[in-house]
Amino acid sequence: MTNISQSDIAHILAAAREVRLNAHAPYSGFAVGAAVLASSGCIYTGCNVENASYGLTICAERNAVAAAVAAGEKSLSAVAIIADASEPVPPCGACRQVLVEFAGDVPVIMENLSGQRRMLSLHELLPWRFEFKK
User: Fold this and answer.
1) Residue 63: pLDDT above 90?
2) C-beta pairs of 54-58 under 8 Å, 24+ apart in sequence
3) Cα separation of 104 and 115, whole Å?
4) Residue 90 confidence (pLDDT) above 80
5) What is the DSSP letter of 85?
6) Active-site residue 73, yes or no?
């Protein structure tokens, strides 16, 4: 796992905590905020956006990745996820696979609103990931 400074951890967690307030979660009531730190040093955020047709819901992590890509970023250095849960919440399988597309063995920092934190590498979260090889 690549190293990340305590300052960077604090910044991306703060960004994830702030964007979580914008989540659209009227069905589950489970608001999630995510932030990705791009290799450029910029931070991009996303929140979950639910839909009455549940399959169309978009997770916070994928929204953060999409914001980074829309800004021209193609390489991520870290991911932070904040949710109001009893334990820190990891990204879902789909989000893990999307993260693999833009990140190597980066830290994934998961925290709940009580401040409980867990940090695992993306490779720990998705050891048998799919990667397209030509």
Assistant:
1) yes
2) 54/27
3) 26
4) yes
5) S
6) no
Determine contact, residues 46/67, Cβ cutoff 8 Å.
yes
For residue range 2-51, list pLDDT tens digits in order: 789 999 999 999 999 999 999 999 999 999 999 999 999 999 999 999 99
Let me know if 85 is exposed, middle or buried by CB neighbors in 10 A (0-12, 13-18, 19+). middle
- Domain boundaries defined on the chain: 6-125
Q: Which CATH architecture has domain 6-125?
A: 3-Layer(aba) Sandwich (3.40)
Continuous segment of H or E residues that includes residue 100: helix 93-102
Distance between CA atoms of 84 and 89, rounded to whole angstroms? 9
> Full-prediction pTM beyond 0.85?
yes
- Which of 50, 61, 73, 111 is an active site residue? 61
Cβ neighbors of 112 (< 8 A, separation 6 or more) are: 82, 83, 84, 85, 86, 87, 88, 89
